[in-house]
């Protein structure tokens, strides 16, 4: 299944390079790689789409993987970076960076996004822990929804008082993988690589947590440490992804369900398959958004909801879906 997911991603990646307001043929796409001609307009189009496709792959991978880790560590099938407030925290921090510090580059956004994502994650867990039963899947979902609503309200409040901040923020907030250079990719790549490696390393610990804390301890695991490491990977992945592409939702919610339906509940397979499927979903959504209403395009953040919602409904209705 992992090989099939990689093949799907490769096909969608090629489609991302070939399709758009100005589409090119497959032969031209191949020629642009083998015999690049700077004077050829079609070759220039293909080269210009490379960073965009790379960002789509990296951001989709990060969000799909982060969603699988969050669902595993909270044992909550509704957990994802958007629902649990991580994306909203990162977005608020970016607005503060724009309004208060005049930050205007991804390399500047990323540190604020990390701080906002981490603060939101800690706040949600702290609020959920105040419940009599502690931080259960239900209390985490409720605390996340309430925290997200509060953070979005604060974000909107800051935008209302600053027209310049609003103008700079509104395009970023829709969620887009469109960039003009490789600078944005290089700014976040180290954080995404580290976050991915840390997340994949938590697979065995997540399998233990799925059996319950007592069972995990009997297997020699330390649930508190496992959750902290998993949370670190989520902050790295979501902070970097949000900084470069804006708050894109639905990827981290839908993709882990699809992965579990394909490979079962073993996180040693769920995590890598979720990463690849997340990249495929975002690249595919961005490509569809480019050809849906030419010559304009629909932002990837909007397309993931349009593409992901029917898939999620189908997964929910399947009686053979694998539980956490």
Automatic annotation (TrEMBL):
It is found in: Cell membrane. The keyword Hydrolase does not apply. Keywords: Cell membrane, Membrane, Transmembrane, Transmembrane helix, Transport. The chain crosses the membrane at residues 53-70, 82-103, 109-128, 140-161, 181-203, 224-249, 300-317. InterPro entries: ABC_transptr_permease_BtuC. GO terms for molecular function: transmembrane transporter activity. One of its GO terms (biological process) is siderophore-iron import into cell. Pfam families: FecCD. GO terms for cellular component: plasma membrane. It is a multi-pass membrane protein. Belongs to the binding-protein-dependent transport system permease family. FecCD subfamily. This is Iron ABC transporter permease. It comes from Nocardioides panacis.
């Amino acid at each position: 299944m992992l090989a099939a997911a990689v093949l799907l991603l490769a096909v969608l990646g090629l489609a991302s390079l070939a399709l758009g307001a100005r589409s090119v043929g497959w032969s031209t796409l191949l020629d642009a790689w083998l015999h690049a001609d700077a004077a050829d307009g079609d070759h220039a189009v293909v080269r210009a789409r490379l960073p965009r496709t790379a960002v789509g792959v990296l951001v989709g991978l990060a969000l799909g993987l982060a969603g699988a880790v969050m669902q595993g560590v909270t044992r909550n099938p509704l957990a994802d970076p958007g629902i649990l407030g991580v994306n909203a925290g990162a977005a608020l921090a970016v607005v503060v960076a724009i309004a208060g510090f005049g930050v205007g580059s991804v390399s500047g956004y990323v540190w604020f996004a990390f701080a906002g994502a981490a603060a939101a994650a800690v706040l949600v867990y702290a609020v959920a822990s105040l419940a009599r039963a502690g931080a259960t899947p239900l209390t985490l979902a409720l605390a996340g929804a309430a925290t997200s609503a509060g953070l979005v309200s604060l974000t909107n409040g800051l935008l209302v008082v600053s027209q310049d901040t609003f103008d700079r923020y509104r395009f970023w907030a829709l969620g887009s993988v469109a960039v003009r250079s490789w600078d944005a990719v290089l700014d976040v790549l180290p954080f995404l690589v580290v976050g991915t490696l840390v997340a994949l390393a938590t697979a065995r610990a997540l399998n233990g947590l799925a059996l319950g804390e007592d069972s995990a301890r009997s297997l020699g695991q330390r649930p508190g440490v496992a959750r902290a490491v998993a949370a670190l990977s989520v902050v790295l992945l979501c902070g970097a992804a949000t900084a470069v592409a804006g708050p894109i939702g639905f990827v981290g919610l839908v993709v882990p369900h699809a992965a579990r339906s394909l490979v079962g509940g073993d996180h040693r397979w769920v995590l890598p398959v979720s990463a690849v499927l997340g990249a495929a979903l975002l690249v595919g959504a961005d490509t569809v958004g480019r050809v849906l209403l030419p010559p304009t395009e629909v932002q990837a953040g909007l397309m993931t909801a349009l593409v992901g919602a029917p898939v999620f409904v189908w997964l929910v209705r399947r009686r053979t879906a694998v539980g956490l």
